[in-house]
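Subject: sequence -> structure tokens, single chain

Hey, anyone have a minute? Need the predicted structure for the following. Not urgent.
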Amino acid sequence: MDTKDNDLLFLLEKDCTLPLHELAAMLQCSEEEVASRRAMLEEEKIIRGYTALIDWDRAKNPSVMAIVELRITPEHEYGYDRIAERIARFSNVKSLRLQTGTYDLQLLVQGKTMHDVASFVSEHIASMDRIKETATHIIMKTYKENGVLYYEREDGKRLPFSF
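Reply:
Had a minute. Here:
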């Protein structure tokens, strides 16, 4: 992958709605080249999809998000992969990552209420074979998501300074 592909990826990650002519101007190449490069990156599954970043609280459709951490007994020959594949199939699991530290897997789970999240974790996740421990952290407020700030300061207002 060359630098133009990397530059295209950074531009798309920042705003995947940019029209071809703007991408071409920023990358100093033709629209056809941009379209071809983007198609190739999609075919190679480097670009996994496109999505909108929604502030559901402002949309008046609030939900509860939680980070759920799992300690797991890895499977011989498969490690964490098979259990991660099972967990990933649940529609309310928005992201799933293998991590270092005390816990092995980290899930981002969405539900309509805290009770929905708690029921999902206790009935579907904690009861799975190989799950040794869970820790659920309710997300109270989002300040920044995927590089996008979720708050706006009035012009001229400074943030308080403290030591």
